[in-house]
Design goal:
CATH class of the largest domain: Alpha Beta
Distance between the termini: 49 Å
Number of strands: 5
Number of domains: 2
Structural class: alpha/beta
Radius of gyration: 18 Å
CATH superfamily of the largest domain: Response regulator
Shape: elongated
Number of helices: 8
Length: 171
């Protein structure tokens, strides 16, 4: 049985908030996670650490996701690492847009793309499926934050709810 704890995922993402979000979601699902804030650092980590899976943004400083993916595919060993493209530019000229550039990149390599904003459950399932990891936790309930808040609210005292509301409002 393949376990998430035994797999390392590299998240290559230049936006700090998105990088931390993706890292946290994967760690919550049990994966070991390493991150890179640009394409050059991502390439170095790939060569040094040989992750089991790569989450790759297309628009990166120092080395674009397109170039990083091309470099991966040019190396016989590295080409075996599954890649998931996570981008906000799937439908515009920056990501390949209507000319089909992105479609050809996906067909040649990773085969999977998620558009930002990413749903945590979709992201984790893509990684699990690519690595053959069995779902060890109920992902739907784990990432259903609205449901978790609703359950907590149902049993909360009115004063506690007021205090929480004030905290959320920043007062």
């Amino acid at each position: 049985m393949v376990r998430a704890e035994d797999k390392t995922v590299l998240v290559v993402e230049d936006e700090p908030d998105v990088r931390v979000f993706l890292q946290t979601v994967l760690e919550d699902a049990g994966f070991q996670v390493i991150t890179a804030k640009d394409g050059e650092l991502g390439w170095e980590m790939i060569c040094e650490r040989r992750p089991d899976f790569i989450s790759l943004d297309l628009m990166l400083p120092k080395r674009t996701g397109h170039r990083l993916l091309r470099d991966l595919r040019a190396d016989r060993e590295l080409a075996q690492i599954p890649v998931l493209i996570v981008t906000a530019h799937a439908d515009d000229d920056l990501g390949g847009g209507p000319d089909g550039v992105l479609d050809s990149i996906i067909a040649e390599g990773p085969g999977k793309l998620l558009k930002k904003p990413v749903k945590p459950i979709d992201f984790v399932r893509c990684v699990q499926q690519a690595l053959g990891v069995e779902e060890g936790v109920d992902l739907e309930s784990k990432f259903d934050l609205k449901g978790q808040v609703q359950n907590l609210m149902n049993g909360a005292e009115p004063d506690a709810l007021r205090a929480a509301l004030e905290a959320l409002r920043g007062r």
